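Annotators were shown the component list below and the corresponding predicted structure, then asked to write short factual statements about the assembly.
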Amino acid sequence: MHPFRLIPKLLLALALLITAAPGAFAQDVEALVNTLPEGSYSDREKVIFDLAATGDDRVASILKVLGEGDLYVREEDGRVVAGKRAGRDYALSDPLTGEALGAAPSSDLDKIRVNNRLRRAIRSAIGQLTLMSPSPSVRLTAARSLLRNADPDALELLDEALAAETDTGVKTVMELARATTILKTDAGLDEKTAAIDTVTARGNREALAVLTASLSTAPSELTPAIERGIAGIERKLAMWDGLQNVWYGLSLGSVLLLAAIGLAITFGVMGVINMAHGEIVMLGAYTTFAVQQVIRISFPGLFDYSLAIALPLAFLVTALVGIAIERGFIRWLYGRPLETLLATWGLSLILQQTVRTIFGPNNREVGNPGWMSGAFDLGGLSITWNRLWIVVFALVVFAILLAVLNRTPLGLQMRAVTQNRRMASSMGIRTPWVDALTFGLGSGIAGIAGVALSQIDNVSPNLGQSYIIDSFMVVVFGGVGNLWGTLVGALTLGVANKFLEPFAGAVLGKIFILVFIILFIQRRPRGLFALKGRAVDA
Amino acid sequence: MNARNDTLLYLDGVSVSFDGFKAIDNLSLVVRHNELQAIIGPNGAGKTTMMDIITGKTRPNEGEVYFDGSVDLTRLDEAAIAELGIGRKFQKPTVFESHTVRDNLELALKKPRGVFSAWFYHADDEDETRLDEILETVRLTHRQHNLAANLSHGQKQWLEIGMLLAQDPKLLLVDEPVAGMTDAETVETAKLLKAISQTRSVMVVEHDMSFIRDLAARVTVLAEGSVLAQGSLDHVSADPRVVESYLGR
Amino acid sequence: MITRTLFRAFDGKANWVVALLAVIAVLVPLSNLALPVGHPLRVPDHFVPLFGKYLTYAMLALALDLVWGYCGILSLGHGAFFALGGYAMGMYLMRQIGDRGVYANPVLPDFMVFLNYDALPWYWHGFDMFWFAAIVAIVAPAVLAFVFGWFAFRSRVTGVYLSIITQAMTYALLLAFFRNDMGFGGNNGLTDFKDILGFPIQASTTRAALFAASAIALALCFIVCSAVVNSKLGKVLVATRDAESRTRFLGYRVDNYKLFAFTASAIMAGIAGALYVPQVGIINPGEFAPANSIEIVIWTAVGGRGTLVGPIIGAILVNAGKSWFTGVFPEFWLFALGGLFVAVTIFLPKGIVGAFTGGWSALKARRISARAEQGSDIAPEPSPAE
Ligand SMILES: Nc1ncnc2c1ncn2[C@@H]1O[C@H](COP(=O)(O)OP(=O)(O)O)[C@@H](O)[C@H]1O
Ligand SMILES: [Mg+2]
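Structure shown to annotators:
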């Protein structure tokens, strides 16, 4: 039950009451609370006014408890307590401080009773405390609830609040609430037209609901204006929805990019599919977890830097694991890509089970540092910080990788091996060395992908499994031997996924994508950006 | 139309490029019935690529390729072209290594190529005799039950020639057949190819000049993807452009 | 011609395998049913469906071997064909429950009542007849394999690309069968079967019969596979595996050959799935999981791909090991399985059978050369012409 549901009706009553009791003194809240049990219902009503008049922050919550009938007097000491049923007894707490006061059976407690009249008074008092509260966020909530339950009776109070309002954000909502309310009154056409304009200008889903609702009650002269308003808002919303989907798609795409790019490098250079790639991503995520665990225990102040510490560490750990895998296993399977696939699958099982043994099978909590949590609005878009940072991060990683491949000697050698291994080897490039470093690089990137994923997904031993097939799809779709293919592939698949979701649902959307890729690869067996040349089909 | 009427293989204005590099550039060439033709040219001249185009492995960007005067090869795939009667020996000998020598030949033997005809195929006496003959011709009788993987390079070359014979094609494309062979074997190969060309057409790519001389065939010189000169070996060897681009080096 | 091809299926090894399977098909059920409980030679009750399950796995591994071992197509999606066959059989068994379900609906299976279906979906019609389900168990995997293979092989998708898209195929099916609106029982799949062809599914006689059926089906599959690989068709398949484009230049339509092998293999996998479901009593979307399909590959690899006996041995050994491990050290099973993948691919690429026959022929070769040195009947190798 929302505490503010009935506010509008009550606000008017409250306004009247305030004028009827001008001499309310700002008495001590605690003393007032302690007088609640005494006297008749009307005495109690007076105490409620007095409480409201104190303007104290804590009053709203006490009144709420009272309104819900959860305020009691403890018989042994006559203290006013809040009680919540807990099993057979009641768990008691101080209504002002929330401090726990143990438990007591119902026989030891006397309920402070309220009737409907009191309930109304309480709600109006809460409304007054909120709509005029010093805190903008409280006022905003109150204004929103008025918007949802527009009541002509509350108009006057709303006008008053509007006049006093200084915060523009709150003011917009209040104005919208006012316009909504006016559409429900029998105000003149001019005033209503102005109200429709106000609502249309707001242009969001709430406004759309208001206009749609007013369509049936408004005088017929206004119908065209309202319909125009509705159409306008719907267009705008559709656009924002589209953009929001693009954003979700980009965000998913950048996650895919991070997960797939290492795979694409190893596949491109060495022609082997590393089925343990997902598990290496998982290792990166667990490295983040371990770093945060150490920080939580030993250096709590460093928490906001935990990711900065985890990134190089994860890169290092996973790169070493990757090199170990290459030197220890893959090297022996050289030129037998299908066997490599099987052996790395075996390694993935082992890695998974190892992590499960060490960290347990359940999800591990990896926290968002302050700068990664929360969200902000951009026009009609809602953008969470962690997603935004991951998109930025993915692009930065991509750029660095591109630079490494195009500007460094290792990159040159890697490209040479990708294009023609035998030739590269006969020109004196130490292909085994290039292989090991390539594998290390690919794995290291998988590791930092794990750091990023730990910020948006559950960290569990199955983390890798849930991304590996999608990563394959990106690589297969984008083609190997060209990082741009991976970028385009990842972003395309991400956006396509998110665009299909509203029509087909998440699962069916994914199935469509898989079927699409299965068909696509028939058309272009080597992906969007394929390497050409004789070496490829040799 | 008239020009290609009584040719077995007819290439006109064929070009193909890889990433902007023109491997074959406006190549025109004709092979007549029962003709033995030798192709020479420097490395990278496009000889193998030309065979790729004829056998359907590579599609030309432009130009006409006709077999037997009327069949447009650019529209057919490898299997269809092979079934038409064009057999090919690869520059790098490729035989089926996990099959025996005899099985390699049996696979090549001219028979219906469908899945079910293969399933229910049973070599009759005539087939067995034919296989024995071919084995004799390519001197692999004593190794017929060995795995092809265990053959030497030269023997694999012979096996591939044997497979060509078993295919019984109208046109044989033979890419560098004598690499890895002894001098005596080279002479034998030249004899064999000449004998074959009595009843069918053969196109041989080779660098070995004494072998080309033994063939005594019309020689076509390819360079940078097109025909540089054509005629008898003595005629082309005298051509200064040929000397410059190929022989002189 | 056909008889001659079939006749060729019975080479020395095949005779032994088929005879052994025939003996098992008779003896195991007989010992379980005829001997009194407690008799030392009696096959215990729980063993019959368990070993019956292994036999269906062996069929599945054999099917995979036909495409992987002989044709070079590493399918990471064979579990899908198995599961499709299983679902077809499961649908029949579901319809057999009739009004004995929890909701006692004479037509609708329990899960449909639960999900408020008011009529049977169109694709559930006909499954009250065994012959229909049996046909679907064959046709559904065959059609999927044919369509998939037709696209894939025609456009020459090979190697790891092919493996990955077969994996994507089974993954897409996994997601699809998890959906409740697909009408296949969603997450829970199909279970609580009561009887098959009128016989109670839990009865020991029924189980014995299912066991015998599995052994016979495996023997038949073995004969068919043997007939394929011993024919010229088999030689073309191997040629395709080793040098695909060379095979094309000989005039063989490699795509058709692959399509044949892939579809035939899918049919065998479907039959195996149809025999599997009544013996384990459940089929759910988990059978489509990519991990399951990869496990099939390791059975085949352990036994020895490119041999027909290998996959059978591998499937039975690995699954017996799995049963033992998950009973005794459940947490170590994944280590063991993972280790098996690594060890087999690196140290035993030809599998148990391959290593054994390899060792055998090496031994034979040594004996022959020893005899040759003594100047006996074997003519010395003429020196290679080089
Ligand atoms: N598939 C291909 N992709 C790129 N370049 C190719 C391809 N096939 C041939 N070429 C190039 O075409 C040229 C001709 O090669 P080739 O026909 O093999 O020459 P040769 O006359 O020595 O047989 C070479 O430079 C080769 O690198
Ligand atoms: Mg060449």
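Statements collected:
1. Residues 237 and 243 of chain C are 10 Å apart (CA to CA).
2. The beta strands of chain C are 190-191, 195-196, 199-200, 282-283.
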